[in-house]
Amino acid sequence: METTFNKRKIEGKTAVVVGGGISGASVCYALSQRKIKTILLESESSPATQASGNPIGVVYPFLTKHKTKESEFSYLAYRYFLELWEALDLGIHVPHKDGIHFLLETSSAYDRYSNAIKSHQIPADTVLIKKEKHSNFDSLYFQKGKAISPIALTKELLRLANPELKFNSPLLRWQPSETNGKNPDDGTLICQTETESISANYLFLTQGYQFTNDPKLRWIPMKQVRGQIANIPGSICKNETSILYGDYITAELNGERVLGASFDEFHLEKEPRTKETIMMWEGLQKHLANVISEDQAIDLKNFGTRVSYRTQSQDRHPVVGKLPNVSELDTTVKYQNLFRKNGKPFQIPYFESVGILNGLGSRGLTHALLAGEILVNQITNQTLDNSQLTMEIPEHIIQSLKPDRFLLRMWKRDQLT
């Protein structure tokens, strides 16, 4: 896939990406399209080991009855995912099954999502309302929605991006170098791991729930959320596509399916909860009894369980953008004085060459590729001119993703000190 851009400003530049999940891999891919040397730091021994959808995740958009910034971004991200999927022939290397049914079990659900199709102007070759044969309920059917291996997708993006990989290398701290001037194009950042100090021109922070280890990020209102899934033998269920009904049952991949997922933002223990597996199974029996194979002996104790964590922002919208430097904020500027004579505007200082991509929640697979492209474009100021990809991202969507929104809310509430 050929791309063109202004090479002069990025020749010889180096980027460090922190976090080897789908977000970090997406940023690495976007950087590779700009020919920027990239170093990936990952605290684990391999990519995407903490992916919340591991071993099988689902790709589909979040929709609302009427357009919101969240649903508009999600639909754009879904389209972008599908465009890259085709352009890069990702299906050749990434195990997947096409087809997602989202059950519409009530009249209010039918009203919400049938209107969502209209308000978001989604064509029939992307989604349509169709009977799901096992439940006989109407459903939103995403023909190209996918059950997919998050690890395989992450590894394939990293293969295409070809960054320098440094596993078992958590980032301990970072700071602008002492020689870093006011011009971000002239400065460098110092990134410290347990074994080395790395100089970089750009830094991208995508480390998920480990963001709390970085004191420069702790002001961002994000939280760790616990999820539990059950791995079940593929033969136990008969569905050929993935079905969502509050919980979900995936299509079969490599002889297994995933039944998921619980959600807990208050109690975060790592040990699996047998009660949650039982509740998920009972939910499947209630909503999709005809999916379960009649000739299979079921013993829930034999189900594999997996606990994982994802990061969710206060408003459940992704956090994507240049990182504000809160230590340089002028906290004497008050919102209540803004409209007075000679009132000072609130100005946000930034780490000009540092970006954050976090808070993707349960839709990291769907959202990460577009979020990575948006972030790299902002930080490097290099927009790709690529005729194979047709995405145009409205400015109000880009603005809605920025971490600035949390500072502005805190400022208006006089919560900055």
TrEMBL record:
Q: Which GO terms describe its cellular component?
A: cytoplasm
Keywords assigned: Cytoplasm, FAD, Flavoprotein, Methyltransferase, Multifunctional enzyme, Oxidoreductase, S-adenosyl-L-methionine, Transferase, tRNA processing
The answer on whether this UniProt entry bears the keyword tRNA processing reads yes
What protein does this entry describe?
FAD-dependent oxidoreductase
Q: Identify the species of origin.
A: Leptospira jelokensis
Q: Which PANTHER family match?
A: SARCOSINE DEHYDROGENASE-RELATED, TRNA 5-METHYLAMINOMETHYL-2-THIOURIDINE BIOSYNTHESIS BIFUNCTIONAL PROTEIN MNMC
Asked if the record carries the keyword Nucleotide-binding, the reply is no
Q: Name one GO molecular function term.
A: methyltransferase activity
Domain (FAD dependent oxidoreductase): give its ranges. 15-377
Annotated GO biological processes are: methylation; tRNA processing
What InterPro entries is this protein classified in? FAD-dep_OxRdtase, FAD/NAD-bd_sf, tRNA_S-uridine_synth_MnmC_C
